[in-house]
């Protein structure tokens, strides 16, 4: 596998990124400087002390320069950090937090590059303060972990108390095991846990059903219950040894969607891609299999968790290509020769298509990849 992109542990980086996003919420674009900005700055007691002039986004400036907003953000950050500590798979929660930030900004009248008018200062501040304090109270409630689920499986689990309890117990056991691993092993363990969840959703026929009425998903309850019990029993049998749960599988059982997911998850773990991206869905759309080798064309969807340049090492290794920020299309020829000032914002959705090579071994089908490059096609959408 290729060397890790970052030396620090992925989860530490993600937590700090999320807290920074929420303390200083990033809205698209930059505020235009002018007389109205100076008037707003005059109403921010901490503006000069905190060097808020370096922050061009008007919403960020309010959180930077106003003591009430800064205190509310600190409480929210504390609640978010506590919530992330309760979850073994933190990545969906990070994405949900980022989506909330964007919705909050728009709801409080902060739109793109538009500077806050002096006449709107009190209204915008009051709105930001209210929603931030409400959010801080909500995220401290463990029940919110379930309610914030944005997948069909999450909705089914949340609606059934027995499933919700079983998942909470499993999460606690998984988190306890991963906590015993070193930074490298824990990175692979988190990736493996994410892959388990995607595999579960495929087996329980819940992929892409986020908008299906809950009543039509009840047939998946038994499947989810069986999955949760199986994983809980597996962890119990390990008797506290994480190496008996994580890192044992190095090959896929057959060259199919699970194999593509297995390969992509290991590539992301090896290269610390989880610092920036979460794999959300995986599909195998074509395959060519011989007795000893296989080529499987897969489609992978990813959500951006932390900003990164559209042409960078992260882009090429973790998404398979550089990207054209204007069209949202791949730029395969750019490679690492170019460095783009453009960056993907949090919650942006990427979809790539590429062919993975596998070789048959005694324990199954082993992936021969160490990066996602090059891709056959791709699109970047969503977010802003």
Could you characterize the architecture of this molecule?
This protein is of the alpha+beta class and 384 residues long. The chain contains 13 helices and nine strands. It has helices spanning 10-23, 35-42, 58-65, 67-86, 91-107, 121-139, 143-147, 152-159, 161-178, 183-203, 221-238, 257-270, 313-319, and strands at residues 277-289, 293-304, 308-309, 322-324, 329-331, 343-344, 349-361, 364-367, 377-381. Strands 1, 2, 7, 8 and 9 form a five-stranded antiparallel β-sheet that branches. A two-stranded antiparallel sheet has the order 3-6. A hairpin with a 4-residue loop joins strand 4 (322-324) and strand 5 (329-331). The longest helix has 21 residues, at 183-203. The model is unreliable at 1-37 (pLDDT under 50).
Q: How many E-type strands?
A: 9
Mean pLDDT: 82
Query: From N to C, what is the helix and strand string?
Result: HHHHHHHHHHHHEEEHEEEEEE
Determine the structural class based on helices, strands and strand pairing.
alpha+beta
The largest sheet, given as strand count, sense and whether it forms a barrel, is: 5 strands, antiparallel
Q: Tell me roughly what share of residues is in helical segments.
A: 40-55%
Strand content: 5-15%
List low-confidence stretches. 1-37
Number of distinct helices: 13
Ends distance: 32 Å
Q: What's the structural domain tally?
A: 3
Radius of gyration: 22 Å
Characterize the overall form. globular
